[in-house]
């Protein structure tokens, strides 16, 4: 073992005392003089053009400071970490239940709710798409542009077609995983204001303040150094606070009112609007020799990625690379297609497609072990990555490959405690 | 009838973004009284990244953990940190902190070398002391060093960043170097399954994680324990239901979307595994997402082992177990 002076020691967390005493300030705990509350008017249909939007009654309510739709946005109205396809406020059509259509700032939280109730909208509804089967049909309405294919990936290593002849056993299964919610304990919240130096400042519950800064600057059409985003103490994220949350809407309302604006989502709104885990269907064909050496892995995967790209491109990039698991395999192929639909937006969630891939590769590995009457640890040790392994992208692993040790140490601990 | 089963699940996880640049940066200043201001972009969402950064800074500078004050995730003060995602911050922001500290140590080393009359490369900074590796009698304390810095009018400031050594992947076949390092894990799970009610009692879980070098062992164990609980919920409790007409989520609240409670969480035995490597700061790799992943196939396999039925579609709710048991019994009766 290395001889470190500070590393490896279980030092007390830098923010432990504030957390234990309950004095840590989460975004919803901030309050400022002259502060307004903000809220968002959201769609209750999944796919529609907006024929009419009447904000006047809400604007006329005493105590309402401003009510804005997309026409108020001074800069860009498309955001997203990888593909800019989501509006800050809907300008062409609604693509999911819960799309933001208008924002309100008022003197109290109650007035915000009252004002939201006074907003009137008329939709021209379009056929909604909730399955990949429908999304891929030619006559299906298009969510964005002229195709519902959100992203495609193809991984190809070795020669899978030629490999099946070398297999003593081939196992085929279809796996599917479901849509999940992060359920971070603290719902999204934020407060925005102009600071002493005139910087548009947003304090928010976030996993990516520098990204947030860029999006706020583009939306307002101002240089990035005129925006300051500060992360408040954050009550978990698990990927669900990687997309921008209340930051854009707070900032837009502060831009117009010049006053501090706070938005706190309740649990319903938070769950409804934040990204979900990609449900993925994987058809897998795995071939091995009779002594349990992997020869070929071939997987087709499809997913309903929902209404906006969010972190979908990151998930579809990661899942194929990991699809064969931590095992040496000379022939690997994976084809992945993600579709836009009007379902809840899928995005970043702890693991980015690797949990789904693990359901597939471990399901296949366990099936293989049973069919060959091998111990599940033994078959894994036989195929385990090690220094020198070439993974399915052609990269050779040169260091820090402790997989076999995790197998051996887990088995030893299990023998002791189970 | 209660039936016991055991299952194994494994995973690997490439640390950082896939085949893309994803740098992070840090600023550091060692003050005259040996306290340190460390500024990192990295958002701490409760996982403890700021604590990790403080430990890496203290180790690199040769100071105490208590000497380091971390300011994090404030774009007017801290440089780009990239997202707290992809289990990347210990590896990438950690390397950035190390590089920033090494930058600040340029002047510290020059000054110590002059005062001790030894070559800079022989100097060791550790436990608030600076000494020669070749002759430990040639030494000075950190306050003495900072006194000398003040005398010469030198400041110990540093900036550093790190971008993992990856390549863009070939669009034709995804070949290339998607990640610089990979974390690995194995989880073994033991369950009791009630074949009449379909209820699953997760009893014990062993989860072994190759984290390279653990920076803070208790926090690594905390990640593993949280991941096990989340994995249990993934397979056995949680499912977002969507209204087929409106696309609205039907169960957005905790009373309808059930996550594991304390009563559901099993006995967890985290095993921290080390491996040798130079890529991470002092060899460290990420554990944030790996903590979750292997529990999902492990608990699935344990349920399968208990009742002798396969489950290829998640989640596995009691009704699914009862249906599988009945189908199996019918199949056996038909034989």
Which features does this protein show?
heterodimer; A: 418 residues; alpha+beta; Aldehyde Oxidoreductase, domain 3; Aldehyde Oxidoreductase, domain 4; 2 domains; seven-stranded mixed sheet; 27% helix; globular; B: alpha+beta; four-stranded mixed sheet; 11 strands; 24% strand
Describe, in plain words, how this protein is organized in 3D:
The complex is a heterodimer of chains A (418) and B (335). Chain A has 418 residues and is of the alpha+beta class. Chain A has helices at 16-21, 56-60, 109-118, 132-135, 160-163, 209-220, 247-257, 267-273, 312-322, 354-372, 376-383, 403-417; strands at residues 36-42, 48-54, 64-68, 93-94, 100-106, 120-125, 149-157, 169-176, 189-194, 200-204, 227-231, 261-264, 280-288, 294-306, 331-340. In chain A, α6 crosses α7 and α9 packs parallel to α10 (354-372). The longest helix of chain A is centred in the last third of the chain and has 19 residues, at 354-372. The radius of gyration of chain A is 25 Å and the shape is globular. In chain B, a hairpin with a 2-residue loop joins β5 and β6 (129-132). Chain B folds into two domains: 2-14 and 180-334, Aldehyde oxidase/xanthine dehydrogenase, molybdopterin binding domain (Aldehyde Oxidoreductase, domain 4, 2-Layer Sandwich), CATH 3.30.365; 24-162, Aldehyde oxidase/xanthine dehydrogenase, molybdopterin binding domain (Aldehyde Oxidoreductase, domain 4), CATH 3.30.365.10. With 335 residues, chain B is of the alpha+beta class. The relative contact order of chain B is 0.19. In chain B, α1 runs parallel beside α2 (89-116), α2 (89-116) packs across α3 (142-152) and α4 packs across α5 (295-307). Chain B is built from six helices and eleven strands. A four-stranded mixed sheet of chain B has the order 1-9-10-11. A four-stranded mixed sheet of chain B has the order 4-3-2-8. At the A-B interface, β7, β8, α6, β11 and α8 of A face β1, α1, β9, β10 and α4 of B.
